[in-house]
Specification:
heterodimer; A: mainly alpha; Ribonucleotide Reductase, subunit A; 3% strand; globular; B: alpha+beta; Phenol Hydroxylase P2 Protein; three-stranded antiparallel β-sheet; 3 helices; 25% helix; Ferritin-like_SF (chain A); Multi-component phenol hydoxylase, alpha subunit LapN (chain A); monooxygenase activity (chain A); YHS_dom (chain A); monooxygenase (chain A)
Chain lengths: 505, 89
C-alpha cells in the first residue's frame, strides 16, 4: 500500500471529550436538583455522570455528516421505487398487510421514541448522556418520517394506509404498540431508557427490522428494505446506548440492581407481547418467507439475548422472568394471533387470509411440534366454512389484556389446548390479563394500568357497541380496508395492474 | 462462549470491509443473507481501519461504518484504529 493515513489533529477520544464533557457547565444560580428534578424519584443512585460514555464516541459533526449520507442513499432508492412502479414488483399484494401493520403500529412508535428521547435528554444531568439522547431523538423522528414517506408510495395505490395516525390511537391491534410506548413515555427517565434502549432496541428491533427487512428484500420491496436498513443503522448505536445505560446504572451503585432487574423483567415481557404482531408478519404475511419467527427468535432472542444476560451476570442480573414462558410461546404465538386476526378481520385495516396448502406445509416444516397438531386442523375447519359460504367471523369483541392490550388469545404455559386468561378485582373493578406476567406487571403498578385506554370496552362506552359508527371513527372503510384478502380490492387491483405491466393488452 | 456479530448492508462499499473483517478474524463466520451480510465470531470481533484502507486504497474513517451498519451484538469499544465487539464470559 503506497498511501498512509495522516495523523489527525484530534483523536476520537479527545474529540468526544471536547464535544460532550467540555460543553457542560456547573450551574451557579440554581441547584442541580432544581434543574434536573426527575432523576431521583425512581431510586437510581448515580455518583459520577462522567462515567457515562458512548462507546462509538459519536460527536455531532460526524453525526450530521453520516446521517446526511444515509438520507441521500434512502431518497435515491425511494425515487427509483416511485419512478419504476416499485409497488408492482412485490411478490403479491398479501405482502402489503405487513406494511400496513408496520405503518399503523410501528412508525408512530418511532415518533413516540423521538418525543421520549427529547424529554430524557433534558432530564438526565450527564453531558455525554444528553448528547447521545439528542442524537437518538433526531434519529427517531427521521425513522418516523422516512417510513411514512416510503410507504406513502403504496398509499397512492392501495387501501389501508390512509389513516395510520388516527388508527394508531383508536384501533385495537395498534393499541398494543401504543400502550407499550405510552407506558414508556409516562415512566421516569431511567425506566424509559430500559424500555426503549434495552427492550425496544435490543430485544425488538433486531427481530423487527433485520429478518423482516431481509424478508422485504426477498419480496421485492426495495423501499421498505431501504427505510428498514437505514433506520437499523441507527439502531445499532441505540442498542449500544441501551446496553451502556444498563451497565452504567449497575456500576454506579449496587442498590440499583433490584430496580434494574425489575425493569428488565417488565420490559422484556412487554416487548415480547408487541412482537406477537411481528411473528404473524414473518410467518404468515410475507408471501416469500426468509425465515420463520421461530428461527429469527433462535438467533436474536435465544442466542443474542442469552449472550447479553450471560454478560450481565457479572453484575448479578439474571434472565428476565418471562424468559422460559416466552421460549415456549414462540412455537404458538404467530398461529394463535393470526387465527385471531383472521376471525376479527372485519375490524382490521389490513387483510387476513386462510393459508394455502403450500403455506401450511411450510409452517408444518418450521413448527414440527405444533403446527400440524394444533393449528392446521383449525385452519382446515375455517377453510371448510369459507368454502360453504359461511366464513368464520367472530363478531363477539375480544377481551383485551389490561396490560399488553392484546386480545386474550394465547394459551396456558404447558397446555396449548387451554386458553390462558387471568382476572383480578382491583378497587371494585374487574381487570383481565393474557398471562401471569401481564397480571404481575399490573399488580406492581395498578395506579398506572387502571388508566389504560382499551379500544374494546371503549366501543361500548362511547359508541354503544355500534360497529358502523366505530368503523367511521377509526377511518376504516368497510369492504375496502378490511376483510379476507381473497376477495379484496387490493388483490384485484394488484393483479390487474401487474398484468398490464407485463403484457401489451 | 457467546457469539458477537455485526451485520452490514450487502453493497459495493461493504465488500472490502467484509473481506478485511474476515481476514482479521480467522474464527469469524460470514453469512450472506438477502441484502445483508452477518458476521459471527466467538466472544470477540475486531474491525481494523488499516486492513480496510489496504483494500480500498484510500483513507477510511471507521465511523463511516455507521452508514452501512445494520446491527451488532456485544460490548462496543471504538477508537481511531479499531472497533472491537466483545462478550465477557
Amino acid at each position: 500500500m503506497d498511501m498512509k493515513s495522516a495523523n489527525r489533529k484530534l483523536s476520537l477520544k479527545d474529540k468526544y471529550r471536547l464535544f460532550t464533557r467540555d460543553l457542560g457547565w456547573e450551574p451557579s444560580y440554581r441547584t442541580r436538583e432544581e434543574i434536573f428534578p426527575y432523576v431521583q424519584y425512581e431510586g437510581i443512585k448515580v455518583h459520577d455522570w462522567d462515567k457515562w460514555e458512548d462507546p462509538f464516541r459519536l460527536t455531532m459533526d460526524a453525526y450530521w455528516k453520516y446521517q446526511a449520507e444515509k438520507e441521500r442513499k434512502f431518497y435515491a432508492i425511494i425515487d427509483a421505487h416511485a419512478q419504476n412502479n416499485g409497488h408492482l414488483h412485490i411478490t403479491d399484494a398479501r405482502y402489503l398487510s405487513a406494511l400496513k401493520i408496520f405503518l399503523q403500529a410501528i412508525s408512530p412508535g418511532e415518533f413516540c421514541a423521538h418525543k421520549g428521547f427529547a424529554r430524557v435528554g433534558r432530564e438526565f444531568p450527564g453531558v455525554g448522556t444528553q448528547v447521545a439522547c439528542q442524537m437518538q431523538a433526531i434519529d427517531e423522528i427521521r425513522h418516523a418520517q422516512t417510513q411514512i414517506h416510503a410507504l406513502s408510495n403504496y398509499n397512492r395505490f392501495y387501501n389501508g394506509f390512509h389513516a395510520f395516525a388516527e388508527q394508531r390511537d383508536r384501533i385495537w391491534y395498534t393499541s398494543v404498540a401504543r400502550s407499550f410506548f405510552d407506558d414508556a413515555m409516562s415512566a421516569g427517565p431511567f425506566e424509559f431508557m430500559i424500555a426503549i434502549g434495552f427492550s425496544f432496541e435490543y430485544v425488538l428491533t433486531n427481530l423487527l427490522f433485520v429478518p423482516f427487512m431481509s424478508g422485504a428484500a426477498y419480496n421485492g420491496d426495495m423501499a421498505t428494505v431501504t427505510f428498514g436498513f437505514s433506520a437499523q443503522s441507527d439502531e445499532a448505536r441505540h442498542m449500544t446506548l441501551g446496553l451502556e445505560c444498563i451497565k452504567f446504572m449497575l456500576e454506579q451503585d449496587p442498590d440499583n440492581l433490584p430496580i434494574v432487574q425489575r425493569w428488565i423483567d417488565k420490559w422484556f415481557w412487554r416487548g415480547f407481547r408487541v412482537l406477537g404482531l411481528v411473528s404473524t408478519m414473518m410467518d404468515y404475511m410475507l408471501p416469500k418467507r426468509v425465515m420463520s419467527w421461530r428461527e429469527a427468535w433462535n438467533i436474536y432472542g435465544v442466542e443474542n439475548g442469552g449472550a447479553l444476560f450471560k454478560d450481565l451476570a457479572r453484575y448479578g442480573i439474571r434472565p428476565p422472568k418471562g424468559w422460559n414462558d416466552a421460549e415456549e410461546a414462540v412455537d404458538h404465538m404467530s398461529h394463535q394471533l393470526m387465527l385471531g386476526l383472521y376471525q376479527w378481520s372485519f375490524g382490521t385495516a389490513f387483510h387476513a387470509w386462510i393459508p394455502s396448502d403450500e403455506d401450511m406445509d411450510w409452517l408444518a416444516k418450521k413448527y414440527p411440534e405444533t403446527f400440524d397438531r394444533y393449528y392446521r386442523p383449525r385452519w382446515m375447519h375455517i377453510r371448510k366454512l369459507a368454502a360453504a359460504g359461511t366464513p368464520f367471523k367472530n363478531y363477539g369483541l375480544a377481551k383485551l389484556c389490561q396490560c399488553c392490550q392484546l386480545p386474550v388469545v394465547f394459551t396456558e404455559p404447558g397446555d396449548p389446548t387451554l386458553s390462558c386468561h387471568r382476572e383480578r378485582v382491583h378497587q371494585g373493578e374487574k381487570y383481565h390479563f393474557c398471562s401471569d406476567h401481564c397480571q404481575a406487571l399490573f399488580e406492581n403498578e395498578p395506579e398506572k394500568y387502571v388508566q389504560a385506554w382499551l379500544p374494546m370496552p371503549q366501543l361500548f362506552q362511547d359508541l354503544q357497541g355500534d360497529l358502523t359508527a366505530w368503523m367511521d371513527w377509526v377511518f376504516l372503510r368497510d369492504g375496502e380496508d378490511n376483510g379476507d384478502y381473497a376477495d379484496s380490492l387490493d388483490r384485484r387491483n394488484f393483479e390487474a395492474w401487474r398484468a398490464m405491466a407485463t403484457s401489451n393488452q | 462462549m457467546s457469539t458477537v456479530f455485526i451485520a452490514l448492508q450487502a453493497n459495493e462499499e461493504t465488500r472490502p470491509i467484509i473481506e478485511a473483517i474476515a481476514s482479521d478474524n480467522p474464527l469469524a463466520l460470514v453469512h450472506r443473507e438477502p441484502a445483508m451480510v452477518k458476521i459471527d465470531a466467538p466472544n470477540r470481533l475486531v474491525i481494523r481501519k488499516e486492513s480496510i484502507e489496504e483494500r480500498i486504497g484510500r483513507r477510511y474513517d471507521l465511523q463511516e461504518l455507521q452508514i452501512n451498519l445494520i446491527t451488532l451484538s456485544g460490548n462496543v469499544d471504538e477508537d481511531d484504529d479499531s472497533l472491537t465487539l466483545t462478550w465477557n464470559d
